[in-house]
């Protein structure tokens, strides 16, 4: 099989993994080619919202496991292929030099013992760095079950590592991916977290200590392949951020694999992309707006509001906390106002130190006034009174309603 055929098979096999953004890593220094911009610019998105600017491939799509939701599962009747480390190094370096890609996202099916699979991935990354002089971004998958020393080694060559949790509960994992264990996936995250802390500690004392996976770790959760609701998913994400200092949880709407039929899977024909979108918005609240998982869904519903973004939905459930007076309120309070992002909240606090704020100025500071207008005052003056949550919902929902099905059966 020639390299183009392999690439076609193994790039196609990798497309279901959503966790491929390259934010949070810096340049690798002199003597290497390739450069990461540390602000998450290595993104280009397909129509269904997935990142394609990395060379995103599997090392091999052969797999011993038989996860029901996966096109690469052992029982799937598909063409199988595998790269060698040299082939992948040549391919990545050539694509990078031609500006086709900005980094490498490298995963693999579990074609052998997890330690052996990790050895192959590590060998590829090491060759890229050492022999090809590649300084671009590398995101490498951790194969759960691999020993701690492989995670340690992988972090010396890759910018980011990720172990995919895939399903939100052990029960779903048992049902849909019985050969995987929640404990080994969480164990890999724990190993990463502890190793990362040790390296950071050593670097504080010994400057020559190498950098360990500077872009941290992430994970992916499949949404809609199992029965868990949004509350369970958000609670899990909150716990993962807290316990393992994850940089990102990626949510991937379950795409029913065409080659696979399995009675354990839900009978959907289209991925629940709107639900995925709402979960990303909720995740944003966890990471940048100081919301706790419990606050995001603190009403009766176990699912996020289909009509409104989670921050606006929260504000309407807590309308007594509004209006927030932007002339006086603290940063944290301003941050809770729908239509005001973290940067705008900072700008408001900074601007009002030197001059008084006007409603006209808010737009220039980045405030989405058409949303914020129901929740703010300036020195006691309203744009629109937040007297009736039902009315506000009617005013805001049409603009925000997603056209995609949240749940499709
Ligand atoms: S371990 Fe499961 S999800 Fe990963 S490639 Fe194999 S079958 Fe697919």
Provide a descriptive summary of the structure in words:
It is built from 15 helices and nine strands. By secondary structure, the chain is an alpha/beta fold. The strands form two sheets. The chain has a six-stranded parallel sheet. Strands 7-8-9 form a three-stranded mixed sheet, with no helix packed on it. Strand 2, helix 3 and strand 3 (137-141) form a beta-alpha-beta unit. The protein starts with a helix and ends in a 9-residue tail after the last helix. It binds iron/sulfur cluster. Residues 63, 65, 67, 70, 72-73, 109-110, 177 line the site of iron/sulfur cluster (SF4).
Strand and helix layout:
Elements: H1 3-14, E1 54-58, H2 85-97, E2 103-107, H3 114-130, E3 137-141, H4 148-157, E4 160-162, H5 170-176, H6 182-205, E5 217-223, H7 230-244, E6 248-253, H8 273-288, H9 293-296, H10 310-317, E7 324-325, H11 331-335, H12 342-354, H13 359-364, H14 369-372, E8 376-378, E9 381-382, H15 389-400
Parallel strand pairs: 1-2, 2-3, 3-4, 4-5, 5-6, 7-8
Antiparallel strand pairs: 8-9
Bound molecules: iron/sulfur cluster.
Iron/sulfur cluster (SF4) binds next to loops.
Which features characterize this protein?
41% helix, six-stranded parallel beta sheet, binds iron/sulfur cluster, globular, 409 residues, three-stranded mixed beta sheet, 15 helices, alpha/beta
Radius of gyration: 23 Å
Total count of helical runs of at least 4 residues: 15
Order of helices and strands: HEHEHEHEHHEHEHHHEHHHHEEH
Bound molecules: iron/sulfur cluster
Q: How would you write the strand order of the largest sheet?
A: 1-2-3-4-5-6
């Amino acid at each position: 099989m020639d390299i183009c055929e392999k690439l076609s098979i193994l790039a196609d096999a990798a497309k279901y993994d959503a966790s491929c953004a390259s934010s949070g890593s810096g340049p690798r220094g002199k003597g290497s080619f390739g450069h990461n911009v540390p602000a998450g610019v290595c993104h280009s998105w397909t129509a269904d919202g997935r990142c394609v600017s990395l060379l995103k491939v599997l090392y091999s799509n052969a797999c011993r496991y038989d996860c029901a939701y996966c096109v690469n599962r052992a029982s799937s009747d598909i063409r199988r292929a595998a790269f060698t480390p040299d082939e992948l190094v040549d391919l990545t370096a050539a694509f990078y030099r031609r500006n086709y890609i900005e980094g490498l996202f490298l995963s693999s099916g579990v074609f052998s013992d997890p330690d052996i699979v990790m050895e192959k991935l590590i060998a590829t990354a090491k060759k890229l760095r050492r022999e090809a002089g590649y300084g671009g971004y590398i995101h490498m998958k951790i194969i759960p079950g691999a020993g701690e020393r492989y995670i340690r080694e992988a972090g010396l060559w890759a910018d980011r590592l990720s172990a995919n949790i895939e399903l939100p509960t052990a029960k779903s994992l048992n049902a849909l991916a019985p050969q995987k264990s929640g404990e080994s996936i969480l164990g890999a995250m724990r190993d990463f977290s502890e190793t990362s802390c040790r390296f950071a500690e050593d670097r504080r004392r010994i400057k020559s200590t190498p950098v360990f996976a500077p872009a941290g770790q992430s994970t992916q959760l499949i949404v809609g392949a199992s029965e868990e609701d949004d509350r369970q998913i958000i609670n899990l994400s909150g716990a993962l951020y807290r316990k393992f200092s994850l940089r990102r949880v990626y949510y991937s709407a379950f795409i029913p694999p065409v080659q696979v039929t399995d009675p354990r899977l839900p009978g959907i024909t289209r991925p629940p992309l709107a639900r995925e979108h709402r979960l990303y918005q909720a995740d944003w609240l966890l990471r940048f707006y100081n919301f706790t998982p419990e606050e995001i869904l603190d009403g009766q519903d176990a699912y996020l509001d289909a009509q409104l973004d989670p921050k606006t939905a929260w504000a309407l459930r807590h309308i007594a906390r509004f209006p927030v007076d932007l002339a006086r309120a603290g940063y944290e309070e301003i941050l809770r106002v729908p239509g005001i992002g973290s940067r705008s909240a900072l700008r408001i606090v900074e601007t009002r130190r030197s001059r008084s704020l006007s409603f006209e100025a808010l737009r220039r500071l980045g405030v989405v006034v058409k949303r914020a207008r129901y929740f703010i005052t300036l020195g006691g003056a309203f744009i629109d009174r937040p007297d009736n949550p039902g009315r506000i919902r009617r005013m805001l929902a049409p603009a925000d309603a997603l056209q995609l099905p949240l749940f499709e059966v």
